[in-house]
Amino acid sequence: MNTISCVRVGSALVLLVVGLLACSTPTRKATPPESSQQLSPAEYEEVRSVVVSYLECDECESGEEQALKKLGGKALPTLKAILEGGPSPARLAEYEAGLKRTYRQLRDYAGTHPESQMAMNEDEYVATYLSNYRAQYAIRAASGLAVIGGDDARAALERAAGRSDLRPDVAREVRRLLASTR
Question: Number of structural domains, the chain?
Fold first, then answer.
């Protein structure tokens, strides 16, 4: 197995780990953010569930976008918060732990397969994939805002488009989504 194959295996394992984490995360009632206090606990739980499903879907072919659009303005505070702040600290910690486990598995495999040397050390691997995870969340949150549309969604995208701390790929996508948001 060459380095490219090893990276492909690593990517597949990362997706597997993310899926397992999503399935194994215990369901718990979250405390609604202040901006969504007008929602009942059941409504807030529905919003949280639909938004997380949308943010973390791979192919998004199971109605995630339609479910988000159906929520409309109820999802805006959550999407805006995610676009501004990224995944929650708990999600980041879970994802990082999964990346470290995956790296160790890949490293162990490479140890018994000399043709499959690791292209990155653990810190580089974790930093790269955490950065990609944050970028995916930001892009999906921006995309969700564009799907819902309206003045509040457009204003959130305008704020994001003006940020200098976004990765270039995220900034380009936010600008593209802003241009298409009505």
Answer: 1
